[in-house]
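Form 7-S
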Amino acid sequence: MAAATLRRIVALALARTYQYALRTIAAPGLVAAVPDEHASYRSGISRVRVTVCDVGPRDGLQNEQTVLEPAVRAELVNRLAAAGLPAVEAVSFVHPGRVPQMAGAEEVVAGIERREGVVYSGLVLNAKGAERFAATDLDELHFNLAATESFGRENQNATPEEALAVLGRIETEKQVSVSISVAFGCPFEGAVDPEQVLDLVDRSTELGAAEVVFADTIGVAVPRQVKALVAEAAQRAGRAGVHLHNTRNTGFAAAYAALGAGATVFEASVGGLGGCPFAPRATGNIATEDLVYLLHGEGVETGVDLDALIGVSEWLEGVLGRELPGQVYRAGAFAPVSG
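Output:
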């Protein structure tokens, strides 16, 4: 092999593209001798089936200036289910004085046209919310607690300890999923100790949670953080998942890292809507259709009809009277990648 070729290989290796260097410029036969270190990672991902839960009817709408009537919110739930979403977070049982966009949760539930195989859930923050949930026929209770005291007080007027006490008193035969907000960073306290978060995972599962979801409420997480936390939680909880916001344009990189680390539940919002009224500068969730495009392109099964989901975003754009943050619904799917 010529000296110039060797120098080119070294340069590319220093740029962390050694595999590419060997494939493009090395001597014949050399590539076959060098294993692709990413092959098993990709093949492992492609054999996975995950649950995509659309939280648009709840998280997506709770920060909107436009307050939609319960009948319209129920129609959104129905359209998402018809697009093949296996799970939809339909409502939040919060006081309408705190979040007027979520008023009339029971009316929304009454307007749901149930589809077999779809899990319909409601968010609960306190004992009163749990009582309201119990009076419905929803399938799964989503309980939220914060990773920090400051955000817990601001978001639901409860510290993590107080929220765990509420969780321990909830009696239900329904599946319980616990979401830990500000798991990767807090707008009031800054960095969050991963061990602190994992302690909440352990204590939540001890109290009966079948699933734990890490919420990047203010969109600060990077793949390194997500991979480490999810990989550890996957060994401790029945199911581990993520709820990501794309505030700093790292949401989809974080989702891919979570997938490789063992997450099987992904919460996202149709059209990329969302944000927390109690978190400064919090913006939308990763868009469900953008996430599904990525997952399908990687060979991951979701059961979602991407074209139908894009149609839901197009409909919602008309309802809200503005362009939504999502990108795939505007650009369209690309069949050679997403199928």
